[in-house]
TrEMBL record:
InterPro entries: DUF3097_C, DUF3097_N. Residues 20-79, 108-264 form the DUF3097 domain. This is DUF3097 domain-containing protein. It comes from the Bacteria. Transmembrane segments: none annotated.
Amino acid sequence: MRQYSPDLTPPWKKPKPVPEVAADPGLVVEEPGTGFCGAVIRCEAGTVTLEDRFGKHRVFPLEPRGFLLEGRVVTLVRPSSAPARPSRTASGSVAVPGARARVARAGRIYVEGRHDAELVEKVWGDDLRIEGVVVEYLEGVDDLPSIVEDFGPGPDARLGVLVDHLVPGTKESRIAEAVTSDHALVLGHPYIDIWEAVKPSAVGIAGWPRIPRGQDWKTGVCRALGWPENTGAAWQHILSRVRSYKDLEPELLGRVEELIDFVTAPE
């Protein structure tokens, strides 16, 4: 007959229970033994793969009390086979599962460059497809007056334009004033480049460096941060760290939302 052995461990020495958290993609945790901090990119039987802010991958076992989430000890568990649909889009809007893209409107949103367009697509893409709004890029604003004239904005084809470094007294502000009308709205953020509209904390830096005038700003940023002077690769790294609107500065968020509202206003 099996003999009962009482647990004589004092209550204050027993480990306290910790919450179990599903290792969903994007969840950021720290493995305390190594100090490795990263986002979950894959969870398989018994292991979880994390990616840090430099793109490095590490695989760890799914052990009880094995990770820190916002400084608290947790036990990561494998997500259910049928993950719940996200209730919010990357922009914070209510997600509409299964919604089809609307036929494109005549109205458009123009942004200055390819990086601007890629960032807007990543955060607001779901919203724009549902609303039928197409985003195009201009490669600068010097030719904006002729572009707006050729577009011919009207009540059924409104035009919204997002401009970098739109501050009083600049060339950009004068161009914006020249083309703004009842059916064309030009808004902008104060940053030299769209890179700066991404919060430094999302990228893992203390702040965006100040680059002396006369230098190429993006190349100067790469040099100041010790990154390879490949601005295309640098942008892809920055863009990969943007997961939702929470990673962007309010000065950009408000302007994009205003442009979407303007272009989609009832005719």
